[in-house]
Design goal:
By secondary structure, this protein is mainly alpha-helical. It contains three helices and no strands. It has one domain: Up-down Bundle (F1FO ATP Synthase).
Length: 74
């Protein structure tokens, strides 16, 4: 049994773990910058919150795609 064959069963798990890093960082940046923006301009809270939630939804969609692709690729 070669080393590649031993690792191939776990590649989906490794791929999802790596795919979750980017969206995790992205969500942190979105909410961190959103809180700073609301602190600087409280009168725009509704607009900033709306943009934060839209960015969060798009970022989480990337995480879900990263979860599904290893299973579909087989």
């Amino acid at each position: 049994m070669s080393a590649v064959a031993a690792v191939s069963g776990n590649l989906g798990s490794v791929a999802y773990g790596l795919a979750a890093i980017g969206p995790g960082i992205g969500v942190g940046i979105i909410f961190g910058q959103g809180v700073q923006a609301i602190a600087r301009q409280p009168e725009l809270t509704n607009v900033i919150r709306q943009n934060m939630l839209l960015g969060f939804a798009l970022t989480e969609a990337l995480a879900l795609i990263g979860f599904v692709v290893p299973f579909v690729h087989k």
